Amino acid sequence: MGMFKNMLNSGESLFRNEVALDFNFVPKLLPYREKQQHYIANCIKPLFQERNGKNLLIHGSPGIGKTAAIKWIFRDLEEETDEIIAIYINCWQRNTTYKILVEICSQLGYKFTQNKKSDELLRIITNMLNKKQGVVFAFDEIDKAEDYDFLYSILEEIYKKTILLITNYKIWLNDLDERIRSRMTPEMLEFQQYNKNETEGILKKRAGYALVPDVFEEDAFRLIADKTFQLKDIRSGLYMMKEAAQAAEDASSKKIKMEHANAALQKLNDFSIQNSDSLDDDIKPILDIIKEKAEIKIGDLYKLYAKKGGNMPYRTFARRIKKLENSKFVILDKVIGGSEGNTTIIKYNNATKKLTDF
Ligand SMILES: Nc1ncnc2c1ncn2[C@@H]1O[C@H](COP(=O)(O)OP(=O)(O)O)[C@@H](O)[C@H]1O
Ligand SMILES: [Mg+2]
User: Fold this and answer.
1) Which one of the ligands is nearest to 35 CA?
2) Is the CB of 23 under 6 A from ligand 1?
3) Whose C-alpha in 4, 113, 291, 349 is 20 to 30 A from the C-alpha of 30?
4) Mean pLDDT score of the chain, rounded to an integer?
5) Mind listing the pLDDT tens digit for each residue in 54-68?
């Protein structure tokens, strides 16, 4: 017996507020994003003066604080006034006009959405919102929406508004219906990747919220910060810090040491490898071709796939590629108006490989 003898008792946990390492935790301060936050706030400002707001397309690679910045501003806005309504929608989770309208109703506290069609829902929404001084809409991951009728409707029906669209791909705008684009006339705001100092600063602050003070040994923290900078995605750092703290706690260590940071790194590797193991059998051979070619046009990939005996119809195939993108196995790059017209170039996402050769 004595199995629990060496375990830290609960008063000795290394975590002080574990949720502060969650991906959707919005910290009190968002360092290095002050400029972008001011820019966004300025687009909303006219609503306070009962004028129409400005629209904005926010773009930049994954894991660099786009969503966090929006949520931060929305929290501030909600504390400031009840007259300007903030509506945040993630278009990956709600990817059609109908689902988006139902979600807006729900955020407005309107419950009787069952058996109502899109145009009825729209009427209810416009009635409620046009009584207010203004509305700020944020459509996050806008490129994941399957149709954009809701955008058109909002542009036409809501009087005073700011529409924020957030995407990892600036080029997405080129695909947008001219009818909508000419009404949106969005300004553009780029989020740049964090440099090494910034990455470190962010992780240090998050560790400060989440863990007991000074629990990281210097080299262990450095390993995690360097790896995060290499992957350019703050999420990977939050994940590793949590795993390292957990590993230290499991070993009843009062400090997070190199071995615990290494275990966390390993876990991040296993995580991505496991992911590709869990892919459906019909996707794996497609991913193998992409990996071998490093980058390939979608049409060429389909031909190769068919030549190897693949028999998915093209539309299904294209959807599968989208799925690979969503789970970050590949990166899609749209090329507009090349020699063969518009096409999509698929690139193997090397982040997975980099994880193993660190
Ligand atoms: N400047 C920052 N300060 C603190 N945390 C940050 C900062 N930038 C990003 N994060 C955190 O990194 C994670 C990923 O950021 P997120 O906003 O979701 O990325 P994006 O929307 O750009 O993909 C979130 O947990 C977020 O809170
Ligand atoms: Mg985001």
Assistant:
1) 1
2) yes
3) 349
4) 89
5) 999 999 998 999 999
